[in-house]
Structures
1.
Amino acid sequence: MYTMQVDLAINDQQEQLDASKSDSLLDVLRKQGRTGAKRGCDTGACGFCTVLVDGEPEKSCIVPAANADGSTVETIEGLGSQSDLHPIQQAFVDNFALQCGFCIPGMIMRSKALLAENPDLTEAEVREALSDNLCRCTGYKKIVRAVLDAADGVDDTSTSVVADGGHLGVSNADGACGCCHDGGDSE
Ligand code: FES
Ligand code: FES
């Protein structure tokens, strides 16, 4: 049951959304059809739900919707389209930096904030900045390379990166890799 409304400027569009007191920002985004931000852990641990709130990356599953009232929110839907990708999205494609893709919206939104703050990044800085965003599939090398390429504005499909960053680079505690897990979204 909805008990309040929150005013949000989502991807440059002013909206007034119904919310319950217990809703997170992720809840209200997804309830109204913006399912780009993914629900992974729902506890602030995985980063799949990362969006930008007033320009800062936030894990939207742990942001109470009420606290976001009056904020500017950027989600993956506000970036490029299938036919006109944002340069960061294009860099991920060019570097084959995704497998199931479940973590990618959060990775890209955090990368967008990172590059806006500092476009002249080192690999170590990219790795540190993305350490809050988990990926179960790619092994991170290709993701890091994509962010560095986006920073450089370089469309570089380095074969060494492809070879290094292959399947099964990262597994979870029970040994499952992201290529095998259910990457679908139940909502
Ligand atoms: S779903 Fe929000 S951090 Fe995992
Ligand atoms: S591509 Fe990152 S979790 Fe699958």
2.
Amino acid sequence: MRKLFLPGLIVVTAVLLIARLFYLQILDDSFKIKSDNNAIKIVYDYPERGYIYDRNGELLVANQPSYDIMVIPKDIKNLDTLEFCTILNITKEDFIKKIEKAKIYSPRLPSVFLPQLNKMEYAAFQEKIRKYEGFYIQKRSLRDYQVNVGANVFGYITQVNDAIIKKHPYYKSGDLIGMQGVEQTYEEILRGIKGVKYRQRDRFNKDIGPYKEGIYDTIAVQGKDITLTLDVELQKYGEALMKNKRGGIVAIEPRTGEILALVTAPSYDPAILVGRERSKNYTALYNDSISMPLFDRGLLAEYPPGSPFKILTALVGLQEGVIDEKTQFVCNHGFSYGRGSFMRCHCGGGVRDLHVGIYKSCNAYFGNVYKRTIDKFQKPRYGVNAWSGHLKSFGLGNFMGYDLPPGRKGHIPTSNYYDRWYPNGGWRSTTIISNSIGQGEVLMTPIQLANMMATVANEGYYYTPHIIKKIKGQPIDKKFRTKHITTIDKQYFKPIINGLFDVYNLGTAYGSRVEGIEICGKTGTAENFTKINGKRVQLQDHSVFVAFAPRINPKIAIAVLVENGHYGATWAAPITSLMIEKYIKKDTITRVDLERRMMEGSLQAEYDKVVNGFYFEPKDKKKDSKEKTEVTEKNKGDKKTGTQKEDKKDDSQKNNANIKVTATDNKQKPKNK
Ligand SMILES: [Zn+2]
């Protein structure tokens, strides 16, 4: 709707404040205007918010005009309340409530009486506005979404609350602010700076020109347009593939760290958080504590990564020199690691070297590598810290520093962690052997998994994943152009890449090959348990897949998580391969049957099992609904204080508490002790 706004035109807003100079001085001590007999009217110029484009220049987010009815309670005179309420289609009780609220904010300052009139309401009210002293119309612009995807990437716009106004005096009642996503991260860039004009009025309320030739006036600074790294076609495709499923997809360009797609499912149409229905719709999304549409799984879901983690076990083993490419271990359908402890393996058994170990995903092979790595050091404490240090060089166990509201650190245990569980050094490599196959105390988010694959694709370095590609007229943050080099030498990545390539040719992803594209990938299955009345109950496994492609000169690294999706090869691997095909071949998907199966496939029945109490005693159902009520109450408080970010955190913590992912073959797991 750019045509509604001439480009570069400052949206000059209508009347704002009529106040005596005395009040002006109270509002702003630095504003040294001496009182005289005239009144001053402050007019704000709200610049139009910057537009948002995708990496190929496609317009994603524009603006549309919106009209708020503002009120200055002190100025209300001779109001025909009945007529007024009829025009606006509100009850008298509503009216009183709104006026009281405005008075509490300030009797002399303007506040929003009724936000975001539609065109019809605006037209009806506009005709009569003169009659209603103390009320006026404030024109603003709201977001106008050109696509119905990417809600989690964009975030949304909302009215500032009292807490924000107190903390950031720039904002006045009724002003809009970006929350979540890029709207929050790039708020100041997108918003611009509003201008202020001081106009003089005589005692007949007639405008007699700028106050003091406008020496106190400021000019509005236009919001800047931004270009995201997102490929909106890929984003659309990912959201379509994840329909009727829960999970996340993160796709990164390895060469740059640019985020190509960030999908979370379920999601929602960003347009439902615009306009008068905003608040109602937001509350509904927030209160959906079962499918949690506001929980960005790509950034926030922490899981034991499972088999994809074996890539790191191998790299650390190679770097520490405890294995080389030719080192062999025998798999006896598992790995005996002393005192009757056994880690099972379904690879078929036999002699395993690095290459076969990777594409057959042999637990015994990686158990051995991990044991050797830790045991290389004089004490297990030193071993774990060395291992942990290597992992941290991949950006694991910490916030990644991307430009979206903060996600999760994941977890990379150090020796201190185990010392707490086993005081006086009562632990060794075999105690923590499940770490070798990504099922111990290690936790990773999908974006960390995708970044790990980008690092492997680059043979040892990565750029911090980011969503900003260009800001009009200004460079993007230098930190996104800084290369992070891991502690693993470049030479050790080649054999790993060859193994990952054969996952497609000979291994678990054989069924997800794409003609003409060489893909390197790894399947994963994260077992999924929840505790009911102290009893461990197993839910369907999560399906995980990580990959990059093409093998030579990689263009995309990707992680796909499908909650309760069973084997990696069932959902996550096909979805990964379709995403890769879509991105590399653009519009030609060759495997239309597979595409249809993924798009139409639903895991709702699996999710309903839990909701319907299939796994739960009636008592727990009660407990569950009580928890939901608590969230609702918290939500109310949240609106006052504007801490959506914190509440989101609470939400996900709740999720983690409800559905906890743990490993089966980890009999000596410290957490259980
Ligand atoms: Zn095996």
